[in-house]
Structures are given as structure tokens and as C-alpha cells.
Amino acid sequence: MTSPPGGSDQGGSTPEPRLLVCARCGTPADGPQPATWTCSVENGVRQYFCDTCARENLRAIEGRLDSPWW
């Protein structure tokens, strides 16, 4: 049995987990998205911020929320 070009004979196509990196300071996450990190969608792009950057910029993050959140 042959696999398609660029494929593998391993079977299954489990995607490699992406390493999360803080969009502000570049700090890498220790594993999957830590519970203390913040996720923000800006201009249709999902960005993650480490707990330190999220705490330091909380007012700016909340300031971008739509009025129904308040």
C-alpha cells in the first residue's frame, strides 16, 4: 500500500499540536493553552496572551469588549 504524496504510512492524520506563544511578549506556553492565559480575536485572528501580559493590559482588553458584555 502506498500513501499519497506528502502523506505517511502511519495511518490517521492527527495534526501536530501547535506551540502557543504570547502575542505580546513571545513567551512560549508550557503545554496546551494554560488556564491563566487569555485568548483574544482581533481582526479575525485568534491571539493568546500569557498571564503576565493579560494582567498588565487588562483595562485595554476589557475596553475592546462590546457594550452587551457590560
**Could you give the order of strands across the largest sheet?**
1-2
Q: Runs with pLDDT <50, length 5+?
A: none
Distance between the amino and carboxyl termini: 59 Å
Structural class: alpha+beta
What would you report as the Rg, rounded to the nearest angstrom?
18 Å
| Average of per-residue pLDDT values | 77
Strand content: 5-15%
Organism: Streptomyces cinerochromogenes
Protein name: Small CPxCG-related zinc finger protein
Descriptors:
alpha+beta, two-stranded antiparallel ribbon, Small CPxCG-related zinc finger protein
Please provide a written account of the structure:
The protein is an alpha+beta fold and 70 residues long. The chain has a domain of 46 residues. The protein has 2 helices and 2 strands. It has a two-stranded antiparallel ribbon with strand order 1-2. The longest helix is centred in the C-terminal third of the chain and has 6 residues. It starts with 37 loop residues before the first strand and ends in a 7-residue tail after the last helix. The mean pLDDT is 77.
Brief digest:
With 70 residues, the chain is α+β, with helices and mostly antiparallel strands. The chain has helices at 51-56, 58-63, and strands at 38-42, 45-49.
What's the helix and strand layout?
Layout: E1 38-42, E2 45-49, H1 51-56, H2 58-63
Antiparallel strand pairs: 1-2
